[in-house]
Structures are given as structure tokens and as C-alpha cells.
Amino acid sequence: LNTKAQEQMEQHLNSLTKPFGSLGLLESLAIKIAGITGNAQPNIDPAMVVLMASDHGVTVEGVSAYPSEVTQQMVRNFITGGAAINVLSRASNASVQVVDIGINGELQLPGLINRKIRFGTNNMVQGPAMERTEAVSAIEVGIEVAQSAIQKGARLLALGEMGIGNTTASSAMVAVLGQLSVDQVVGFGTGINTDEKVKKANVIKRSIEINQPNPADPIDVLAKVGGLEIAGLAGIVLGAAAARVPVLIDGFITAVAALTAVRMTPACVHYLIASHQSVEPGHIFVNKLLGLQPLVNLNLRVGEGSGTAIALPIVRSAIKIANEMSTFEQAGVSGS
Amino acid sequence: LNTKAQEQMEQHLNSLTKPFGSLGLLESLAIKIAGITGNAQPNIDPAMVVLMASDHGVTVEGVSAYPSEVTQQMVRNFITGGAAINVLSRASNASVQVVDIGINGELQLPGLINRKIRFGTNNMVQGPAMERTEAVSAIEVGIEVAQSAIQKGARLLALGEMGIGNTTASSAMVAVLGQLSVDQVVGFGTGINTDEKVKKANVIKRSIEINQPNPADPIDVLAKVGGLEIAGLAGIVLGAAAARVPVLIDGFITAVAALTAVRMTPACVHYLIASHQSVEPGHIFVNKLLGLQPLVNLNLRVGEGSGTAIALPIVRSAIKIANEMSTFEQAGVSGS
């Protein structure tokens, strides 16, 4: 982080026509982004949501409220612009890039980036979700997608995901990485009932038991009980942080991806901004592990990057405050 | 409220390509606005921030971190576009209308609406802040300003305020209206210290003691320990609710104004949307009395309507979700 740009930003904010510190988290955000970008007059536009989609073999265990085919169906919906993330990102003036990193089916759609590593993961109850080399390849895809987006001009990357079954993988990952009990971190996903939640927790426990992922080795955790979109999103964080571009996290799944990146390269944590607090209980634990405080809590549990699109105008406002407000001197206003 | 439009909205939201209820508060907001406007495809644009400014005689007691002249200086700043509310409302595509309802000085500025009732209030420690007839006139100004804004096309009104000393008046009002202890509701305002806060609480206690405002008579409370901008903003709520236009509340002061309107006409409460949770402790009590849950908590304490401008894109997103998302049927996505 560029501490000089941070200090310049802080001094500038204190000269603006408002009570000292009265813009709260907007001021902290502006300072953080100055530090990330090394620019005391930063800019986060154009902003891009990178939405990674893949399938999960564990869905055969009945862990989700929706059938596995919904992953593909929703990807079509993203491409035609009718999903929540499309509406919300249009409203927030962000573009959406959809990446097939492991959908279980052949998809050729205009605008869909095909970086498929494999046709979904294996059922992690019966062995590793994927090979270690596949997890590494998925991370590399994420790094490359981030680099390419930034080269095309993106100044902020927001994380989005689609993958029926991915709260199951994410819960397994955070239980291992955070050394937490499965029952603490498992939730209702897209809308299972209490009995199904018990089953989901048992599936996760068996997956961890059979695979014995090593908490100290984030790639081992990714490969054994993770997912391809989670690995790809971890790569986005690594690629963005290396280029000093801020990353906006969505809900539980993208937060687990960010945690995975931070476990690989701890300095990444400074480049992360948490957008919203999801309904999934595991999300609170991940935010605690990351030391992040989400900007909004609207009881969202739709994923796709929806929370980032909601939070983006707040991040943009923080920047605009710094760039556009008058100082006490300019406006002739008496200080306290 | 139009319950038919609410039901239509709820049914429509349940047909959209997302897990049932997964857009949380965005869905509740869309249903609420359908009920307010009587339209299952509502629109809240153009949105306007009505910022009422006035002075408070009680400032001579040293209750604020800033001198009383800052009210006028900031009004000039609003008109030239350099204040926080200007930057934030430009970012959120809302207009700002500034009303002088009781500034202690002659101001002739382009775009400033002059509806001055008197040159600031009296010092409420020594007697009523204003006459009852003046409080009524200020409420009437608010109703008229709301009617005029709506006639010019505004579909959502957001409340903003400026008035050095107005957290003192608001704290007094909520202590009386909510029958709460002054120490519970008094806060640091724009940035006084702990000793000054004790002094502020004593000033409020003496004001209540000498004036004996009647908790069952909101106009009596307004006149004795309130303020002209608070009365005007209560009028905005009354005028907007009568025209079935949603009202976005900012922080503590505007929430007290909304509570005053609700005590006059209880049905007004259905037309209110709380934007942000302010740092002022009294705000929590007012929200509890109103039964409202703010959309964001960013530790703001700048006033001016700043929280409404931050929350406006969220409200707009809720509407856009309803108006623009695909249904399961349209997108060919399997249900749960």
C-alpha cells in the first residue's frame, strides 16, 4: 500500500466542508483506495464484475434446492441480461464478464469466455473434487482474466459466481481454513429446509473426513473440497492485487475465494473491499478471518456478484467526495 | 396503501430468476413502494432532496462544535454545489432544493427558496423556541414545498437539513415524544467533547423543564423545543404522504421530523423509508418508535440529506429488479 497517498487523502478529507470524520466509512474507503491505487485522486471506473461459473459433483448428494442444470440455465440468463446481476450492474454502471471455468456442459454463447478446466468437479464425498494441477490451472485462469480486464481498462474488479452446490464447497473450505466446526458455518444456501441442512452438513463432514485437506495448504483445500469458480476467483484477487486494483467481494462464496488468495499471498488482504453481509452464517466467519466489515446488510443470498453491484455506488461516492467537495477555505466556511 | 399493487409486486418478484426471497430487503422495498404508489411497476424518478435550513437560538448556550453562522455559510456552499450533499446527490442522480425556512440572516441566492418564517428560533432554555402559530406556518411551508415539487414531477422526496444546534432541538423533541431520558438520546452532534455533551444534556433538560411541552401534542413539542427546519420537514412528510409519494429519511434530525408528522397523522408512517443509521444515539430510538430499519450503516453524522443520497441507488435498484429481471419462464430456468 502507498502510505503517502493515504496520508494525502486523509489530510484532504479533513480540509473539506464537513465536521471532522463525519463521513464515516466513506472516508475510510477513500483512504483505502488511495493506498491501493497509490493515487490521492483515485478513480475506480470502469468497474467490471467478473462472474465465474462452474458445476459441483457434490450436487448428486442433494445438497441444493436447485438442480445442477440451473448453473447453465443461469449462465444463459446472464448472457441475455435478465438476471439480478445484470439489472443491478446496469443500475450501477458496471460491466459483467462471465467466465465458464468448469460448467458441466458445452456452452457456446456470445460474450461467454470459455476457460473451462473440466466439466464440473467430482463428488467430494468420494474423493478430491479435482486434481491439484487443475486447481492451480483454475487459479491461473483467474490471474489471466484479471490481467486482461485490467489491460482493457478496468480500475476495479468485483467478484461474482454461479455454481449450484457452491455454498457446500465454500462451507467445507471455510471449516478447514478457519478450523471451525461444520455446523457453525453451514447455512440454507439458496433455500433448503432444516432437514436438508442437516444432510448438507453431514455431506461436508464426510468430504472433509475422506479427503483430509491440509488447512495450511490452501491449494490442497481448494482441490479436495473446493470448486473451480472458487479457485478462479482466488486468481482474480491475486491478479488484481498484483496490479494494485481494488477488489470488491460479494457474499460467502467470493469471500472464501478471497480468503484462499490471502492464505496464498497475505498482502492481498489490503486490496479487498467487502460489499455486503450475506445471510449465509459462514460469511461472518470469513469476514472475521479477513478482518473486513461489509458496507451494507440487505439480507441478500442470491450471489452472482449482486452485493458488489449494490455497494459499487457507495464506493464511487467515497471517491467523488474526495474529488469534488469544497474545502473550508474555498467555501468560506468557519471551522470548529 | 394499495394492497393490490403490493400483492401483484410480491407475486411478480416470486416469478423472477432468483431463489425465493433471496433479494432480501430489496424485495421488501419494492413491495413497499408498490403499496405507496399504487403501482406494481413503480418509478421513483425524478428524485429530489428537499433541504430545509434554519437557525437555533439555543446555540448561544454553546451546545455545538460550530458557530451559528455556519448555517448560512453552508447554505451558500449548497447553492454553489461544493457540499457533501451536492456531491452525493450528483452521484445518485437526484436534484437538491434548498429552502430557507428560518436562517438568522438575509440570504438572496440563486435557487434558494425563501420561505423564512422568522430569523431563527428563540433560545429554548429561556422559553418556547417559537410561537405555536409559527410552528404551524412552518409545517404548512413544508406541505406546500412538497406539493410544488410533486407537481413539477418529483416521484420521491428525500429529507435534508442544515441548522447549527439542531441535534440539540431534535434530542429534546425525541426525549419528550418518546418519553425517554435526555441522557439516553443526547449525542456528540457534529463533534463536541464529553464535557460539552454533559452541558448539552443539561441545556436540553432545562429547556424541557421550563417549557413543559405536552408529549401528546406534537405541535406543542415542535414549538417549545423544536426548530423551524424540523417543522418544515414534518410538513414535507405530510404533503408527500397525501400525494402517495415515498419519503426517504436521512439521519436523526429528519427522523424526528418524520416522527412528528406521524404523531400528527399516523398513516404517514407507511410512506417512510429509512436510509441510513446515524451515529447519533437518539436516532436508534426514533427508528424504533417509527418501526423502521435503515438500509445502510456507514457511521455518517454529516446530515444535509447525505444518507438519503447514499441510499437512493439501493431504492432504485429494488425498483429496477422488479421492472427488468427475467422470469423463470422467460429465461427457461428450472425452479426449486
Note the main attributes of this structure.
homodimer, 336 residues, alpha/beta, 5,6-Dimethylbenzimidazole Phosphoribosyltransferase, Chain: A, domain 1, Rossmann fold, 14 helices, globular
Give your account of this protein's structure.
2 copies of one chain form a homodimer. Chain A has 336 residues and is an alpha/beta fold. Chain A has 2 domains: 3-42 and 321-331, Nicotinate-nucleotide-dimethylbenzimidazole phosphoribosyltransferase (CobT), small domain (5,6-Dimethylbenzimidazole Phosphoribosyltransferase, Chain: A, domain 1, Orthogonal Bundle); 47-314, Rossmann fold (3-Layer(aba) Sandwich), CATH 3.40.50. Helix content of chain A is 50%, strand content 10%. Chain A has 14 helices and 6 strands. The first copy, chain A, has helices at 3-14, 24-37, 70-80, 84-91, 132-151, 166-177, 182-185, 194-211, 218-225, 228-242, 252-264, 281-290, 306-324, 328-331; strands at residues 47-54, 94-102, 113-114, 156-162, 247-249, 272-274. The first copy, chain A, has a 6-stranded parallel sheet, with helices on both faces. In chain A, strand 5, helix 11 (252-264) and strand 6 form a beta-alpha-beta unit. Chain A starts with a helix and ends in a 5-residue tail after the last helix. In chain A, 62% of the residues are buried. The model of chain A has no long low-confidence stretch (mean pLDDT 96).
